[in-house]
Amino acid sequence: MKDNMILIGFMGAGKTSIGTCWGKRKKRRLLDTDRLIEQEAGMSIPEIFKEQGEERFRQIESRVLEKLYEEADHMVISVGGGLPLREENRAILARLGTVVFLRIKPETVLKRLAGDTTRPLLQAENKSEKAQQLLKIRNPIYEQAAHLVIDVDDKTPEQIITELESVLRKRTAERMEETE
Ligand code: S3P
């Protein structure tokens, strides 16, 4: 397994902001799959969804992940909320490094993303219903894909980083015991 830390979870869970803080603290570069997709496509995520559709977006997303697997090590990687849904993507994530699921409740998503226009999947008439629907389907998949889970509701970024530090330390210790 490679030595990356990968953050997965629903839109608004703080994958990129926690990844940025963690990267600064650990002097590790942050890669964000959404930004890599935008570079590859030469357009923004809402534009890709509007002009080429979600399926095309998912194809680019899987291709970006395959490339990342070839190239990335010792990095922090923040992945789009839908990336773990494809089984082939989950298989790559498992080998790419330690996968941490930032778990968020629907009400926190709505609070954080109330005025957001950059997530095509949440531009529904009833945002709350949509977020609940998606989370119901996705949470078991995120749990399955993750080595570690952190609940982010009502926590500051500092609290999440401290918790992350502690669960990662524990996991490293457990893995060392296993190999002894
Ligand atoms: C998506 C999440 C977005 C982005 C795209 C689709 C999803 O990323 O990849 O809008 O399916 O959950 P963030 O989770 O970084 O918002």
Describe it:
The chain has helices at residues 15-26, 33-41, 45-71, 87-96, 106-112, 127-145, 157-179; strands at residues 4-8, 30-32, 76-78, 97-103, 148-151. The chain has seven helices and five strands, in the order E-H-E-H-H-E-H-E-H-H-E-H. It starts with a strand and ends with a helix. The relative contact order is 0.19. It has a five-stranded parallel sheet, sandwiched between helices. The mean pLDDT is 96. The protein is α/β, with parallel strands linked by helices and 180 residues long. Helices cover 59% and strands 12% of the residues. Helix 2 (33-41) crosses helix 3 and helix 5 packs across helix 6. It is globular. The structure holds shikimate-3-phosphate. Shikimate-3-phosphate binds next to loops. Shikimate-3-phosphate binds at residues 11, 15, 34, 45, 80-82, 119-121.
What is the secondary structure topology, with strand pairs?
Blueprint: E1 4-8, H1 15-26, E2 30-32, H2 33-41, H3 45-71, E3 76-78, H4 87-96, E4 97-103, H5 106-112, H6 127-145, E5 148-151, H7 157-179
Parallel strand pairs: 1-3, 1-4, 2-3, 4-5
Helix pairs in contact: 2-3, 3-4, 5-6
The structure holds shikimate-3-phosphate.
pLDDT averaged over residues = 96
Strand arrangement across the biggest beta sheet = 2-3-1-4-5
How much of the sequence lies in strands comes to 5-15%
Ends apart, CA distance between termini? 18 Å
The gross shape turns out to be globular
The structural class is: alpha/beta
Secondary-structure element pattern, one letter each = EHEHHEHEHHEH
Q: Give the uncertain stretches in residue-range form.
A: none
Helix content: 55-70%
* Rounded Rg: 16 Å
Q: Number of helix segments? A: 7
Task: List ligands, each type once.
Answer: shikimate-3-phosphate
Mind describing the biggest β-sheet?
Answer: 5 strands, parallel
DSSP strand tally: 5
